[in-house]
Amino acid sequence: MNFNKAELQKETTYKASRSGGKGGQNVNKVSSKVELLFSVDNSALFTEEEKAVLNEKLQNR
User: Fold this and answer.
1) Which of 12, 28, 29, 33 falls between 20 and 30 A from 21, CA-CA?
2) What distance in Å separates the CA atoms of residue 45 and residue 23, rounded to the nearest whole number?
3) Nearest to 40 by CA among 27, 28, 54
4) Domain residues for 33?
5) What's the whole-model pTM score?
6) Tens of pLDDT along 12-46?
7) What is the Cα–Cα distance from 47 to 50, expressed in whole angstroms?
8) What is the pLDDT of residue 58?
């Protein structure tokens, strides 16, 4: 795995939303949950072997 930060950023997207559950004064007013989305299978950064290892380790997520 030899890639830089810019290459990784091209393959990720961010999604902001309101966090679920109880909150204080700012509940349902601000985006307080951020998700980082990354597709291992569609990545050009990893070899097929590396993708297989990642998918095996992440299968329960």
Assistant:
1) 12
2) 39
3) 54
4) 5-57
5) 0.64
6) 999 988 766 666 666 666 667 889 999 999 999 99
7) 5
8) 92
